[in-house]
Amino acid sequence: MPKVIKNVGCPYCGACCDDVEVTVSDDGKRVLEVKNVCAIGTQIFMHGGDHDGRIKLPRMRQPDGTMKDVSFKEAIDFTAKTLLKAKKPLMYGFGSTNCEGHAAAARVMERAGGCLDNCASICHGSSFLAIFDNGYPSCTLGEVKNRADVIVYWGSNPAHAHPRHMSRYAIFPRGFFTGKGHKSRTVIVIDPRFTDTGRVADYYLQVRQGHDYELFDAFRMVCHGHADDIPDVVANIPKETILEVAEVMKNARFCNFFYGMGLCHSDGRNHNIDIAISLTRDLNEFTKCTIMAMRGHYNITGPGAVWSWQFGFPYCLDLTKKTMVHMNPGETSSVDLAMRDEIDAFINIGTDAGAHFPIPAVQHLKKHPFITIDPSRNMASEISDLHVPVKICGVDDGGIVYRMDNVPIQYRKVVDAPAGVPSDEEFLDAVYERMVELEGEGFI
Ligand code: SF4
Hints:
With 444 residues, the chain is of the alpha/beta class. It has helices at 39-48, 72-85, 99-112, 125-134, 141-147, 158-161, 165-170, 212-223, 239-250, 261-264, 270-283, 301-311, 334-339, 353-356, 359-365, 379-383, 424-440, and strands spanning 3-8, 20-24, 31-35, 59-61, 67-69, 89-93, 115-118, 150-154, 186-190, 203-205, 233-234, 237-238, 254-259, 288-293, 317-318, 326-327, 345-349, 370-373, 386-388, 399-402, 408-411. The protein has 3 domains: 3-48; 56-123 and 298-440, Rossmann fold; 125-293, Dimethylsulfoxide Reductase, domain 2. Helices cover 35% and strands 19% of the residues. It has a 9-stranded mixed sheet with strand order 5-4-19-18-17-6-7-15-16. It has a 5-stranded parallel sheet with strand order 10-9-8-13-14. Helix 3 (99-112) packs parallel to helix 17, helix 8 packs across helix 9 (239-250) and helix 8 packs parallel to helix 11 (270-283). The longest helix is centred in the last third of the chain and has 17 residues, at 424-440. The radius of gyration is 23 Å and the shape is globular. Residues 10, 12-13, 15-17, 37-38, 40-41, 162-164 line the site of iron/sulfur cluster (SF4).
């Protein structure tokens, strides 16, 4: 009999929907059907939960350029030796890895004396910089659902990037103090592009590309009683609209800003987030107001939480001076390290640096050993010297993940993994053990 498993967490985007229903075959090896999940999440379960389509053995590049299946023991040995031989190895990724994997990776890179970084380095890292400077007056998605009556999406498009965000947390659900759902909320979308999220907005403000900071400044001027001094048009938005929207925010019972990469990666970067936080603080003179980053992958919040606890820093960790960990984005961030050709061994884990890094950075990394740890083929795996397949958290592996609002959620496996395929944590722990063995044998 097929078995229905309820309250499963979806391992795709930072919304971390944990109400998914998965029907699995009676042998526990195949996902047959999923409910309460968007089109993107469906693909994760249907492809991940199908053993026929999975890679089951590591693939090592041969002298003639082809890839050949090797055992996990050989893959562990190759990875351990690569890390021990390197002067400055880098392990990067972790958006699609559970927190147990993050901790195991930290143990390995601390022993290897290398650099450790996560995808925030090329996405919400600028948010971290602003948060360090200006604080983070945030809340949980549960509070948004139950209390928020004014929702602002600024530089983010959840209709495509986090498809159930609006229906599960922000706009449509009926919460404790938002019993009429969509009818009890005012939606403001601020974006240079008119997106599908813009279609549900009560106010759509087409800010001029790269001029978000000026618009924040105008809203702050209204909050500080200087509305008369605002020019007739700011960042493409007429003064009357700015005043009207500012009144909506000030008169909210609970207002929340959700912001995305459109804000933290357009002109201004961390300064945009800095002033967004300042506006949030200003609005608390009139009402309750909070702010939240729309984190992309389902557990990209996780490495920031785990490594902050272990080392005191969320990303861009330099562990080369073993007695003193430091973080300095621009110096110790992955792309900058690669562009300066400082890295002599690279491990791409739970992400696709091949697709996301600038081509010159990838070209530098490719001069040295290049390893990918990922359940699937991607651009990085196809240029790697070694590709190690692992379990998929939330499909055939459990573990802790951190939702975009920093709430930890226990994910669980719904089907058995292909025989012999380890989790990220199991593989990295085995690499660590092998490094200890090799050091004992006098390797290097
Ligand atoms: S919104 Fe995100 S977490 Fe929710 S089902 Fe879709 S991909 Fe999964």
